[in-house]
Amino acid sequence: MASETKLWLVAVFLLSAAKMQQHCVVARNPQVPGLFIFGDSLSDCGNNNNLKTDAKANHPPYGIDSLYGPTGRFTNGRTTVDILTELLGFDEFIPPFANTTVSDIMKGVNYASAGSGILNETGTHWGEHFSLKMQVENHKAIVSKITMKLGNSDKAKEHLNKCLYYVSIGSDDYISNYFLPEHYNSSQTFSTDQFAEALIKEYSRNLMELRSLGARKFALIGLVPLGCTPAELSARGKPGSLCVKEENDAVVPFNDKLKSLVV
Description:
Elements: E1 6-9, E2 35-39, H1 80-88, E3 108-110, H2 132-150, H3 153-162, E4 164-168, H4 171-178, H5 186-189, H6 192-212, E5 217-220, H7 230-236, H8 245-260
Parallel strand pairs: 1-5, 2-3, 2-4, 4-5
């Protein structure tokens, strides 16, 4: 990417669960004018609610600590990016693309879709979803609306240059693709290093597309040790094991290659 592009590599760790007391957060001047969110179930705030898919969270027990009940977030209340939104100073959480109105778009849009991945095929066994490529296509539509709202492309570009683009995706490319040989053949086609290379190539292509649409500030989130998540440990863990080493090892090349995009 060009040297003037600012890529912010951010790792966010939640040490404790926080209850969602209200949908609005403390009002103050945001550090950026807008926040655009791309990702999977870790960031989805309702985009899958009306899709034909098993990957949706608009039902109990999700949202048990939220005054609003299940909203489509795969948590008991807020998501990581909701908390980031608060820390950035926004007075409301960023709305899902599925429910976005013209009055919302200047402060950002959440395009994240549960079950989605960097690859278009990832998560299709769950049903409908918005892959990273589709999320970028949805952003194109929003950019067109922002341009019309501001009156010309120069003003739109100036605004978009200052916004933050948060991208947290790739987990499902492993747990809902590579390590599901009964649905996908990627593990027979690629070694883990080759698969990571294919993911990063497609990831980079989408980042460059976002850049062509005005993005300059990025927060790229690496993958956690997937083999230590309860679902993967339950499905593939050995008796007495704390993690699935094979899965943890598999994401290391991806994270290493992701770092190479920002140095």
